[in-house]
Amino acid sequence: MTAILPFFIYVPLLGFLAAMLAPRHKENLISAIAYSVVSIEAALAAGLLLYWAGSGFPSAHVKEVVVFHSEHYEFFIALAFDRITAAYLLVGSILSFLVTVYSRYYLHREPGYKRFFATKLFFYAGYYIAILAGNMETLFIGWEILGITSFLLIAFYRDRYLPVKNAVKVFSIYRIGDVGIILAMWMSHHLWHENITFAKLANYQLVDAQLESHSFIGFFISTCIVLAAAAKSAQLPFSSWLPRAMEGPTPSSAIFYGSLSVNMGVFLLLRTYPFWEHQLSVRILIGALGLVTSFVATGVARVQSTIKSQVAYASISQLGIIFIEVALGWHLIALFHFAGNAFLRTYQLLVSPSVVSYLIREQSYVDSPANWSIENYYPRWMKHTLYVLCLREWNLDNLMYRYLWNPMKGIARRLDFLSTRRLILFFIPAYALGIAAWVWQDHIPATLRAYIPVSMAALGVLMVLKSFAERKHVRMSWLLVVMNHAWIALAIYFNEDFSIGEVWLYLSGVVVAGLAGWLALNRLKRLEGNIDLDQFHGHIYEHPKIGGLFLIACLGVAGFPITPSFLGEDLIFSHIHSDQLLLASLVSLSFIIDGLAIIRIYARVFLGPHSKPYHEVAYRSA
User: Fold this and answer.
1) pTM given for the model
2) How many domains does the chain have?
């Protein structure tokens, strides 16, 4: 049974490569590739599930590939299969097949036909990597693929303002979830002193023995997992991103935000349940989060004026209930609920363009208020207050801006005096001073030496904050992100004595991708002149090759699993001690902001309405 598991990953990856090589105007060829991939996946899933059922429903765990090994650290790809994987595999294979068949005709003669199917095939690969993952590192690879494909499909109509803007918003929330997983992996390394697999987490005696003497560490890991799950599944306070994600094509909205991707937060909780099962405070937190989210989302869904927004908030409400079921330990009910909700929301979204013309609203949508409702017993002031709050979506977007993004931008504006020339003149001496401090660290008092890694990491955070808020100099913004990685590497290398090869492993992908991005921006600057960050330029329309190269460079600098930097990020975190929460927080914050700054650069320079007036101006929304 384990021999067939890797093919669920290989098939969509090969299909993605084939779709990328196919001519753009050959719709029949592109759709045939996608149709073949999902058909093979569905056949493999059916065969595997039948064999699994005939064998008595055994669990399978296999250590597939060891990517990196050192004396104190091992990074390996592990695969697993059990009833949780089986449920997600069955639902995913059926829905991906149906949505692909639907998309072949829905997107006929769409300019981005090839781009859509290539991205969807890459998404399928990420989805199968995530649900078949046998450890957190493997799951994180799929998690990252889901995030970037989500951004690309929300911004599918890339010549329009709102799809691009909302894609950046959604990616910003995903980035917070990414760091939740990174922090959970970091502390797990210190708790287990190894790359722990989900099979070992299922061992109650092993987990209980560790958590008995490390209760705070266990609570910290569980809280990070809940943070990642809440961000991915649009639970409070992150709920507002899901309706914004509906700017993409209807098929991508159905498969991403109606069924598969949005349920990955639930999958993460189910997969890690044996770890936090006996932490009552964590279970209460998850249950309370789901309860409040369900209450808020239900009210907001009932006042929406568009079908997609209504479905989005209805899905959020059901996900909140599934969170409660997981917290109570009702896993079979949660899996059935996931499957039913996924099929229903996919159907609702796929028929949403036809609701008015085919008069099928009464089948799956609430088109008129019920004759009786619990609100009838509310006082008038309460009804009106709840109505206004739901109409304003409880100001969730404003809260995120007021208490998270705007304070960061305010700090960054204090660095407006920096120019590219001043930055280089400052960076080179400062970094040379940091290297000198590392060389002669034995001569530095121990009390002072303990604060140096934190100071270096804080300097890196200031750099990415400046990059995130920069509105003029695009090349300086890019340079700041690359410099941030250099400061992180120096801070961690100063923090603990380990092989310099691990630092080069981390920086190798960043340096290569950073140089490629710099060359792409220089080339575009020579061709177009002004490429500031104060507006969207839409240069992907006239310079698709430069845009493609720069996107790959963005992924490399952000630590996407196409360069050694992805492994290096996890490796770097393993050298932050378990009692250095401030240092870990600063490094995590820098990873959040550098991802946002990079995607912001790409979106502003290459996406959105074209800056040249002779191009047609698209509608703001899809």
Assistant:
1) 0.91
2) 2
